[in-house]
Structure formats: structure tokens, C-alpha cells
Amino acid sequence: MQLTDAELDRMDAWWRAANYLAVGQIYLMANPLLREPLRPEHVKPRLLGHWGTSPGLNFCYVHLNRAIRTRDLDMIYIMGPGHGGPAAVANAWLEGTYSEVYPHVSQDAGGMARLFRQFSFPGGVPSHVAPETPGSIHEGGELGYSLAHAYGAAFDNPDLVVACVVGDGEAETGPLATSWHSTKFVDPVHDGAVLPILHLNGYKIANPAVLARVPEDELLSLFEGYGYAPVIVSGDDPAKAHRDMAAALDDALDEIARIQRAAREPGAAGTAGDAGGRPRWPMIVLRTPKGWTGPKEVDGVPVEGTWRAHQVPLSGVREKPRHLAQLEEWLRSYRPDELFDRGGRPVAALREIAPVQERRMSANPHANGGLLLRPLELPDPRTHAVPVDKHGTATAEATRVLGEYLRDVVAANPSDFRIMGPDETASNRLGAVFEVTDRVFAGERRGTDEHQAASGRVMEVLSEHLCQGWLEGYLLTGRHGLFNTYEAFTHIVDAMFNQHAKWLKVSRHLPWRRPVASLNYLLSSHVWRQDHNGFTHQDPGFLDVVLNKKAEITRVYLPPDANTLLSVADHCLRSRDYVNVIVAGKQPAPVWLPMDEAARHCERGIGIWEWASTDGGADPDVVLACAGDVPTLETLAAVDLLRQYFPALRIRVVNVVDLMRLQPAGEHPHGLTDAEYDALFTTDRPVIFAFHGYPYLIHRLAYRRAGHHHLHVRGYKEEGTTTTPFDMVMLNDLDRFHLVMDVIDRVPSLGGRVGHVRQRMADQRLRARAHTREHGEDAPEVRDWRWPY
Amino acid sequence: MQLTDAELDRMDAWWRAANYLAVGQIYLMANPLLREPLRPEHVKPRLLGHWGTSPGLNFCYVHLNRAIRTRDLDMIYIMGPGHGGPAAVANAWLEGTYSEVYPHVSQDAGGMARLFRQFSFPGGVPSHVAPETPGSIHEGGELGYSLAHAYGAAFDNPDLVVACVVGDGEAETGPLATSWHSTKFVDPVHDGAVLPILHLNGYKIANPAVLARVPEDELLSLFEGYGYAPVIVSGDDPAKAHRDMAAALDDALDEIARIQRAAREPGAAGTAGDAGGRPRWPMIVLRTPKGWTGPKEVDGVPVEGTWRAHQVPLSGVREKPRHLAQLEEWLRSYRPDELFDRGGRPVAALREIAPVQERRMSANPHANGGLLLRPLELPDPRTHAVPVDKHGTATAEATRVLGEYLRDVVAANPSDFRIMGPDETASNRLGAVFEVTDRVFAGERRGTDEHQAASGRVMEVLSEHLCQGWLEGYLLTGRHGLFNTYEAFTHIVDAMFNQHAKWLKVSRHLPWRRPVASLNYLLSSHVWRQDHNGFTHQDPGFLDVVLNKKAEITRVYLPPDANTLLSVADHCLRSRDYVNVIVAGKQPAPVWLPMDEAARHCERGIGIWEWASTDGGADPDVVLACAGDVPTLETLAAVDLLRQYFPALRIRVVNVVDLMRLQPAGEHPHGLTDAEYDALFTTDRPVIFAFHGYPYLIHRLAYRRAGHHHLHVRGYKEEGTTTTPFDMVMLNDLDRFHLVMDVIDRVPSLGGRVGHVRQRMADQRLRARAHTREHGEDAPEVRDWRWPY
């Protein structure tokens, strides 16, 4: 379908309008329509923002709009170079969405003045495609995740097309470089399509972009190797580029439609041109100048098409008359009088070519996923509970029990819940889910595979970046999920977690953004049980990263057993707009609490375990606190020893499930008041706290409490290797014997047997180590210990 | 050069020996040579480790050894699938290196017994290719970095060939996916070569590997697109695979030699087959079965060639006689009697085909880089000092001053110092280095580029993973460097930092591993000055991650001005085996200290600034502490206000450069004793601490101090956007006015004017905000404030 001249003119007018609005946002604080000659005081004192990528983003926008109208497409737009915020805002304003969401930024001269002034201005809007920007699910401040977000949005949205511009800078990042492989995980029947547009504008801030400098045959080869059918659109002549882009886009969207039709028709079995049954999805490589249509030269050096166009091509505009004149000339080159009427409203010819209502990419509900969110159908966790007649007498692998619960979640929610993980679902013992679903794999499948299928609820790829990026895209478009992963390697996505938490923090304060499902992490294969792998796999520090983000966003749970894990998971899957981190082991371990008690304990988040305590509910000599499954085990084993050696000692056992309870109530919504905290921990008795992670974290949470001076924390102190489970806790002084020694050292009233018992504990540690080193396994007396009361 | 039958036999024997030793390590704790029938008690009680990748690693090893001998190559071997530790250890033992480094693991039957027993055994060695493994610079526990390490090792080592096996699991990670592009940064004249061997054994723990399931044309296309000339070697018949691999390796090494010769000969200008002047480096794709030569089936299900071969193919060997028999059969299939003599020593035919001395990959000094380390020639930082007549009166951009110092470092060390960064060297104002060097770019260069050349000391790529990975490889092979990057995005490499810190922690305790240069981070474009980018770019939390690692490894510096930055940088570049983190701004800011004072202040790491204090050296009413450039500025501005309003107030100003000084002496080698700490901070006076990062970090460091109860910390509390510098500190209550209010709220003895002054401060905050929101820039009275005394 050839572009008619009239169409081309209207599209070019839109493009000029969007470019004008982008430049206006960066430079102007008054005189938005240039109704008078430009004067220094019309120009912002601080010139901030990124021009270089904006014309390319605008170019794509108007072409995608044409396609939406001609094909009635359901499409969203992910702008990888999200620092081109002016472009996203400009198009949303032209489409009318911006003024609907922010009525004071109306579609008239006054609104345009506010639109310009607010950009990157104190009290205004950020310079990036941020949560504040209608139509966005992707900020792009930290580059690398656009394509993963795009695929996440497309999964289980069979009628959605996600257009995704990938900048040539971002394309150098690792996460982006592997995101191209996402096609191996797209099911053309049940998923929507992603249309990647790799935008080669040649330069980053100061350097050429790598992919902009490889020969064309190599570039095509790369993307064919990634499994795409790439088409190159290249040029700096707008009219020719418009025609080429329109044709390329038509071809790509035809091909997407063909692939989906072929896959979805009854009896379909792959399509022509497939790679092992996998479609070759189209993609576009768009090569246009950086800062296209901006100043060609400034002060005698080239700007358009170079790295100098990255941010603000003309600097010191208030002070340099020549730059001021050049800015005015640049702005007028878009012929604003043809684009906006007297009142400052976009002229009818522009308004008419925009898609309408929810077809506008700036107003598409998929980009405000909370609008589409449906609560999960959740099974009653009690139906999966491990029966516990007496505290601590049952044994279970916590994540295996959770797996059965998740199996029922999957079965009840076949199209809006996914489990992501780097090849760990089975090894983390969630394998029951495979009774009702498969792992998604759109590549070649073989007889030796297990539970691989073109569609399924489990997505496994050895890239934490992809798992996280896909899940973020999936959640932000209104669905649910869980990311199960190795505890230590969650650090791989620290930066992605940060960005998602920042997105949620801002979103929560925008009433028009509806709440989305929480991002749920299940950290298993944790620090204390790395029998196969050792020191590199031992790092519980993700919790420290999480706690730096806003309290209103973050939740950390350390369920001590299978039943509490069920209760916590059920809670997390119902929550909205949080990041929930659950740490849980996969090894056989005691189940301490019957299900009803477990649910009550999790609801409180922290509590005294009276059944393990000996203080009769009042006036303990010592508090033994614990958080995490392994620390809880060692703590109760220590209590057992203490009860044997010091029968008169008044011990209180406090278990913490919800770590945020330790913070002051003023710091976190889950925080205990001082009175509540003191009632649990006392203000003057020694507290020996056995913690799953780095011990400082507990101090950081509790340093304001009255009893903090008496708080002594044991945790992981960065000692480890491939060794036995008990040797691991010994290496870090978290073992039961050491906890008893800690009590002895801190409780003055233990009486005469102290030295004798302390020596005995030290001897037992030595014996435990000697046994381990001789036999290669833990001594039965520690390995097989069970709570005997 | 065809492989003769005799050669093939000897190589196959080596391979069988290495495979035998790998299986022995995983399974056996006695009867290493199978001189008696295998009994349950010969088998380890806990079967741990990874068999699946080991035969492939061994296969490559023996082929690389042949090439080393026939070509007298200087070669090291990076094993991406580093969980195949048994393979690395097996070959080092066969080569004799293992017994040289660890004499108790001798090359005889007793040594072999110890070799087997120690593997993944309490008190023994880890299961991975760890620091303990001779010949390794890469652990590979956390996958993704092998190829970046390999290129880092090759830079500036023109005669070195780095063979790098990339596993098909690791190949799915983002960092690895972008590492292939490293060829665009290799200078064939001054750098060595990397020979990647992509090992497709088909499966990860449970899933097929993506690259193992793409059609062969697509696979070739992908690597041609990455810029390589790939050759595929494929098969499961050892004899044929040996011949094919030998031929492929010969071709690849011939091609490397040809590329280097062509580039290095006088008047060279590229070589045939180049892509834009860039050579097409060879690579090998090796496709062999996972767990090759292991059990084909176990309990009726296929194992060899499937995911079931990943870890321990035969489980429960002590308990299941059939598995025990199958293990014995498997071990005997390698015909150990032909491989080891009566004493357990490798037979002469094996010993003779190993390279000798430092040509052995297990003994190559490049893999123990400290052996080759040369101290840097460092300029005197005083020659770059900013002259300061009176404290705080000079102004400088700290990183610009550092840039001039680094220029001289570069000039004086033209072949063993590199600066890495994601396109930020100029924007971080280190641009003076370009007076003496260029950015490395081996792709096409154009006239609009600046400071791009085939060789240079600066490496910029928009991938923090590549920057960090390259630098790690460069440092571990005995060179020096600096990674300058955006503070917020250092989180992208949190996990890589963790792994490097873990590597150093273990290495420091291995006397045979010589100290290497520290990994130096320069975090600029920090949280407080993100004028162009806003909230996504505001995150000072990398420091929290760093502090979780061992105190003996980590150092954090927050120089308050240009002169202290010079002094700190000089110190860091001289240090060994640390990770040094330097946080420094790039904006114009006061220079507080003359150079001599700066040097003394940095040497102490913390100190009272008497010239700013009013307590006459004793008995302050309040301590104003600060760490970081912006907090120091706000603190001194607050001191100025306090001196105006409360002339009698006895103020002490403490500035912290070396954050570790705050920790107790028992916790960190730099930690102050309690007496020292109390002498600075007092035990009973309020301390208002203005901190660069998240405030909890200071509490975490100082919670044990006597005066902690009086410590009140201001820092970044996750509030921000694109706004003015002063608005940023106001958003986080770190501004001078708020610090004065904090003093007023905490010093009881201020007298009658308190309410009045407090109100005035609150008013000034409101006025500052109003000014900013109206004018888009900070009010001159805050922006232009200078220390007036």
C-alpha cells in the first residue's frame, strides 16, 4: 500500500509538530508558538534533556500511528531511548491524551506553554519517558531492558503488537544483546507480537555506536542469526524515508499477521520460512541521523548526525545571540503556523490522522496495566498444608510444598500468571507445576526434553535479566507472576529491581495509574545450602539492596518452614504495587507450625513461639530471635541444649517472618511500635538474633530500639565453600553450639556450670568439624536433630 | 598438519586420564586406581559436583596442549563452565603443576587419593575452577563473564592467546551475549588474541540450551554477524572428533597468526576478509554430548547427551549395588591401568605430551598475574594540585583535575594501564587523557569521530558488564586500571563486584597467588547531580553492596574536593588486592584544602576541620560530620549560618574521606579505636552527619560506638527527579537550612533565639523552593555561596 502524497504530507506535518514540541520542551519557558520574535527570557536558564534521539522516536510514532489506523491495531510503543522523553510527551499531547490526564496542560497555547515549561523543570516532569508519561511502561533511564519489557508485554496478549525502538547505544548492553533471543519463547498462537525497530543514529554521548559501524551484510547476518527477518530503512531525506518506512512497516505487519494466521488456523503446523518450526519474525533497522532536522552545524562544527546532537545542541542560548537566532531558525523550520491554530491547538489535519480513544498508543490500557488487572484465582493454602501434630515434628521441603500450591495457581489462572526462572524451577523443587503446564520453548524440541512446549506457564532461560525484564513487562501490562531464582544471583538484577521499585514509587502517587500486581521474588537455593557450588553461590545481600528502596514498596519475608511459606506466598500473590522478596529453602527441614498457627504467625509477621520458650510469657532471662529457615533450626536446637544444661533459664523464642516488622513504625508501614517491639524483645535482656543474611541488616533495622544495645546478631559473615550444611553454619558462628556460647557470654545469672558447659559446646564444635572432615558428611547428632518437646 | 594415529592415541589417552580423574574426584574417597573391586565405602557419602561439562573441557584441554607444543604458544585457558572444576584440577595434576603448588597432592597413588578425596569435601577444595586452581583467572560460578575476562587478559599482551570455552548455558546470559562484540575493541598489533570455543553440549540443568537448538545456518549467521569466522566441530565419535578438532584448531591458530602478522608487518593496512578494516577472528563451535563418555543410561532413562548428565549421573551409589557396578564399569572404561603406572603416576606417554614449565596452561604466569605485575609510574599528585590560599576559596571540577593527573599516568604507563567506562570519560570530565591517548575502536572510523583509534588506553562501550569484565581480566593478568562510571548504574555490576571480591578474598590466603592491582571504581555523575536525567540515575547504594564483602578487601573513599581526590586516586593506584571505590563529583565546587593538608587529611582518612570549627579543639556543643562533596558543601554552609545566628555555639566539623574509619577497629583494618572515635565525635554530644549515600549505612558502621545514640544522619532517602542541585538536597532534607534545624532540634543550650531562627530556616527553604520553581534555577544566594571565613 503506497503512501499517497497527501498522506505523506500529513504524516510529515505530524512529525514536524512533534519535533517542534520536543525542541520547545527542551528550550522554551515562554512564547511557545513563536508569535513574537524569540528573546533570551523566553529560553530556560538551564537547558536540559536529550534532543538526539527525539526526532527518530517521533518518526516511528507517526508511522506506527498510520499503521494503527489503517489496520485497527492494538499497539503499544516502548521507547528504549527513554531519555527522549520530549518525544513521548509531544505525541501524547498531540493525541489529546496528555490533556485528558493532566487537564491543566490543555491542548491550546496556554497548555503548550505549560507543557514546555514543566519539562525537566523543578516541580515539573522528568526528562525521560517516565511513569508520569501516558502510554509508557518503560522509562529507559538505565538502558538495556526495552526489548525484554516488550516481550513481557506481548506474552498472553495474542492481539497486541508491541513496537519497540532499540537505541544503538542500548543495543551494546548485555541484557539487550540477549533479549533478541526472546523469539525462541514466543508462541504465535497465544502470544502477541513484538516489532523491534533498531534505531541506528550512529552515536552515543561521545562515541560511535558499535552496531552503527558494522558493514551492512554483517548487520543483516547478525539479526538473521538471532532468528529475525531484518529490513533496513536508511536515509536523511524525509520524504524518501517516510515512503521507505511506511513500506517496511506494512511488510513487517503483514508478515506478523501472516505468521499469526498460519499458526492459529486449525491444523496449523508451522509456517514457510520457519527455523525449526519457529517463525522468522520481522524487524526493522532504521538508520537516520542523530538529531535529525536539528542544527547542522554550531559554531563551525558539525552537530546533526554526530554525537554532539545527543543532549542540547545549542548551549548558552540566553547569552549568545547567535545561538538564540539559530534556535529560532530551527524552531521556525518546522513551520509551526501550519501545525497549530491561533489558539495553539493542533490543526484539524493533524488531529484527524491520530488514532482514536484506546487505539492511541498514549491511551492504550495495556500501558496502564492496572486497568486490565484481574485478581488471581487462588487456592486455599490450607489445602496444601503439611499436617503438624506437634510443633516441629513433621518434615518437608518447603519449596516442594509450595510447588503444589503453585500448580493449583497455574491451573486456575491459565492465561495471566507466569513463573520465570533461570533453569531452576525443578531444581528449586517447584516441579509439581509441570503436572499442569510446561516450559515455554519455541525452538526445536527433542525426545530427551521434559515438559517443553510452545506454550506454557513456566519460562526458563539462563538470564536473570530476561526473567526479570519479561516479568516486569508482563506485570506492567496487568498480569501476575513469580520470579524464582538463586538467592546469590539475584544481585545480577539489583539494578533492574532498583528501577522497578523507582517506577512503582512514582506510579503510586499518580492516581490515574492503576495498581499492578506485585513483583514477587522467591529466592531459593540460598546461602546456607550450596552443597554443589560453594562460595560464589553464597550471598544473601539482595535483601540489603531491597531495603534501600522506599518502605512503601518493599516487603521481605523469611518463612521458617513449609506452612509459613504457603501463607506468605498466598499473601504476596494477592498484593499490589509491592516488591515482595521471599527467601525459602528447598531442603528437607522441620515444619514448626500447624497451618492455622502458621497463618496467624504470618499475619503478625513476628511473634513469640511460646511452645519453644521457657519464660512462661513474661520476664525472660534471654531472648533467642531468629529469621530464616536455617537460623530457626539452629536457634531451636540451641534452645534444646539450653533447656538441657540450664533448666531454670527463662528463654524466650521470637521468630521473624516479616523483616520489616523490626523497623520503627514511623519508618515502614509494617514497623512495630516501640511498645510492641519492647514487649517482644524486652529493653534490657540480651537478645541473640540468628539471621539468614548479613548481620548488619538487623542492626540497621533495629538501631533505634531501646534494647538495641543488648542485641547481638549472628548471620552470614562471608565465609563459605563447598562443604556440609552444618559446617556452613559453623564457619559463620551461627551454629547451635555457638548460639549457646553466645547466651552463656551474655547472661550473667547462669550459675556455676557455665564454664563447664561453654567448654562442652566448644568441644562439640570441634568434634562436629572433625567428623565432617573425616567422613565428608555431618555427624548424625546434628544432622538428625529434631525438636524433642 | 594431519593428526597421526600415534598422536591421536596419546591425546585420547590424556583425555581418558583427565576424564578418569574427573569422575574419581566426584565419586571416590579411596581405592583411587581401582586396584581392588569398588566397594561402597570407597565412595563419598555426599556426591557433589558437575560431570556434564567436564569431558568437553578435558577434550579442549588436550587439543590446546597439542597446539601449545607444536607452536610453542603462550596460552591460557578460561573455562566458562567453571563448575567443571574436576576438569581443571585433573589437567593441572596431570601436568604436574598441581603437585608443585600443593606438594601433599603428589603425582602418585597417595596424591591421587588426596586429589579425589579433597574435591568438594569439607576442608578440601571447592567444586569450581576457583582461585585455588592453578592456571585459572576465572571461577565461572556466576555465569556470563568468561569471554569478557578472556579479552581483558588479551589486551596489551600481543603474544598471548587466550582460549575461552563458552558454555551454551552461559551463552544465554546478557553479559556473554554482548561480549562477542569485544572483537571491535581488539587491536591486532598491540593486543593478543582470544580464541572462543562455544561448547554446545545441548543442555543446562533441566532445559535445552537455546543456541544448541537453532539451525546450523542460523548459528553460523549469528557468529558471522558478530564478526567472527566460525567453524563447527561436531560429533560423538572420539576418534573423528579428535581429528576434526585438531584440524579446526590448526586452522584457527593459523588464521590468528596470519591476522597478527598482516597487521604487524611494516606498512600493514588491514587484511583480506576484513570487515571495515577489522579482522574476522576465528572461533570454534564444538558440539559434543553432555556428559560424553559417561553412563549412556541409568535406571532405564538416557543420561549421556541429556540434562540428566549435568551434575552426578549416578546417585545413591553407596546404597544401590547396580549403580556401584555401573560406576566401576564407567571408571574402568577409561582403562586406568594404561594411564597410570604402578605408583599411580601418569605414564611416560602422557607426561611427554604435556607442555613444559610455564608453557603449561596450569602454570602460565599470566594466570597468576601478580607474578608479572609492575608498579605503575605515578606522577606526584601535588603537581596537579589546585592552589588554595584560604580554605574553600578556590573552585574546581574535581574529576577534571583528576583527568590531568590520569593523563600523566597514561603517558607514563603506555602498555599496562587502561581506563574503562560506558561512554563517560569525557562527560565525567576526564577528557585531559585524550591529550595523550585515544579511545580504542577497531570498527569503521569516520571524520566526525573524536579520539578514536585502533589502539589507546581508554575503552568505552555502553555495557558496564563489559567494562568490568575486561578490567577484571586485565587486572588478574597483572596490569592496572580504573573503571569510571555513573554511580547509580554501578549496581548493574553488583554481582560481578561480589564475585571479584570473593575471588580476592580467597586469593589473599593462597601464598602462591601473588597480589594483583586493586580494582578501582570512580563513581562520578553521582546521585546529587543528575540534572539531565533524574530519579533513575539517583542511587548511591553500591556502597552498601560493597560493605557486605570482607573488610580486608573493600575500601570506600569520599574525597570532599579536587585535592583530596588526587590524593585518594594516587593511593588507590598504588594499592594491591583491594576493591577501591571512589565517589567524586564533576561539577564546579569549592576546593577546601590546600594540597598538603589534603594529603594529610586523606592519610588519616577522617579528621576535624579546625579551620571550620568553633570549639577551639575541645568540648563542642555539637559535631557536624560530613562525607561526600555535596554533603560537605551543605555542612559548611550550615556552619556559616550557625556562626551567624549562634556565635557562641561551639561547633566541631568532622570530615570523613575513608568511610571505613567509622567501623570499629576490630571489624576493619582502617577502623578507628573507640578512643579515637570518641575523641572525634564525643560520646555525649549530638552529631549531625551529612552523608552522600543512604543514611542507614552510617548507622550500620557506627552502631557500636558509645555516642551512637546521639548520631543523627541525613542522606539520600530515595527522593528525586530532574531538578536543580539545591532542590535535590532539599528533597532529601540534606540542605544547609535543614541541617541548621537539626542542630536546633538537638542542642538544648542554644538560648532564646531558637524559635525565631528555626522559623527563618524553614522560610528560607520555602523561598528557595519557590525561587527554583519560578525561575528554573537555584537562587543565587544558595548557588553562589562560598565559605566566607
From TrEMBL, chains A, B:
UniProt domain Xylulose 5-phosphate/Fructose 6-phosphate phosphoketolase C-terminal: residue ranges: 586-787
Xylulose 5-phosphate/Fructose 6-phosphate phosphoketolase N-terminal domain boundaries: 3-371
Enzyme Commission number: 4.1.2.-
UniProt keyword annotations, A-Z: Lyase, Thiamine pyrophosphate
Listed PROSITE patterns: PHOSPHOKETOLASE_1 (PS60002), PHOSPHOKETOLASE_2 (PS60003)
Required cofactor names: thiamine diphosphate
Keyword Protein biosynthesis: no
Presence of the UniProt keyword Amino-acid biosynthesis in the record: no
EC category: lyase
Gene3D superfamilies membership: 3.40.50.920, 3.40.50.970
InterPro entries for the chain: Phosphoketolase, THDP-binding, Transketo_C/PFOR_II, Xul5P/Fru6P_PKetolase, Xul5P/Fru6P_PKetolase_C, Xul5P/Fru6P_PKetolase_CS, Xul5P/Fru6P_PKetolase_N, Xul5P/Fru6P_PKetolase_ThDP_BS
Family statement drawn from the similarity comment of this UniProt entry: Belongs to the XFP family.
Official protein name in the record: Probable phosphoketolase
